[in-house]
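DOMAIN: structural biology
WANTED: fold as tokens
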Amino acid sequence: MWDNRLGMSGKFFVRSFGCQMNAYDSARMADALGGRARAAASAEEAEIVLFNTCSVREKAQEKVFSELGRARELKERRGGNLIIGVGGCVASQEGEAILERAPFVDIVFGPQTLHRLPEMIERRRQSGEAQVDVSFPEIEKFDKLPPPSFSPPSAFVSAMEGCSKYCSFCVVPYTRGEEVSRPLAGVLEEMAHHAANGAREIVLLGQNVNAYRAEAEGGVVDFAALLECAACIEGVERLRFTTSHPAEFGARLIDAFAKIPKLADHVHLPVQSGSDRVLAAMKRGYTVLEYKSIIRRLRRARPGIAVSSDFIVGFPGESEKDFAQTLALVGEIGFDFSYSFLYSPRPGTPAARLPDDTPLEEKKRRLALLQEKLEQGGRTISEEMVGKTETVLAEGRAKKGRGFLRGRASNNRAVNFRGEDSLIGEMARVRIAEATAHALRGELLRAQ
């Protein structure tokens, strides 16, 4: 029973920052609390406010503390009757230092300890002292968490966690631990649960999801084998995965795109730079030639597959020549819409100690050039889709346009089309009629 003296009436609100892994973890936080509390529509209505944080970039980290400032004001207005928790990668990275900067925070927990939330809240209630647990118990949370309480048409399922690549710029191995794969049975069971509850698309998640390796009867199961098993689950009509690492994108995974029709016509494969010199400094473990070979073989296995990527601009020591090689790679590959960011030094990473004499304005200029080229490529792909018929999973109502639904084609393009709410959660055949700035507009032909 919640203690109302601390404002614990049983309503919680989770504010999520960052990647799809965080979106998945936020949903699992709600599952962890769901047996004892109810979700609130906003922080103002809640008695427990949780921030699921991201520390991949400095801007994301500072945004968390800005949001915490507003939560502090809310707590003060309630006379202290509000539990504030900070989870995710910032919590894992900073630990008790968060309490020094924000002493009004009640709970600090890491990505691997979110399942302990009910106990941490109870200990906070009983002792009156802030609780901190940012340890790395391997896979324990998946054994302790209840089945997901909600299954959207496109559902996330974590296949593995952590990262053992130790790229020189990345903080993930220090905040989420090294790579640990979930047992095959557990992953398939969670996928089947979502499919039985209406999910038609499953997105398998991991920092380097294609590094998945699990012991099973008969030997070790790799990621390609996991996909083969997933495709056999009744009700699953489409499979996606993110994020992949080029160093783990082997022949078996490429062949899966030729053998598994349920795999979507899209792959997100971060390259980060088009310069071998910069890739070596980043400790990425592959060359530009090797990356291009992966894409060439993928397109041979699945003609027309869309490829998106991640890019870092202004990595320490990046020259104008290095950047020109990145632009050349973009022109050669023909990437779909991709993510690109200015390099952000993260505490404790090797790259944070590298000399960096490139002016910020020059970095911003390069980023603008790259983004313009990426957007141009994305627009070309959108325009080429006009007139074609696509299979679109209707995920919900469109934000704009009354009577319109939103969904995604197999190549991950957002599509809005007019349709009844009864189509939500179903696959629909849609003819693409128009390419707009941020989505495609289509005409419903029929539901599948």
Summary: The longest helix spans residues 360-385. The chain has a mean pLDDT of 92.
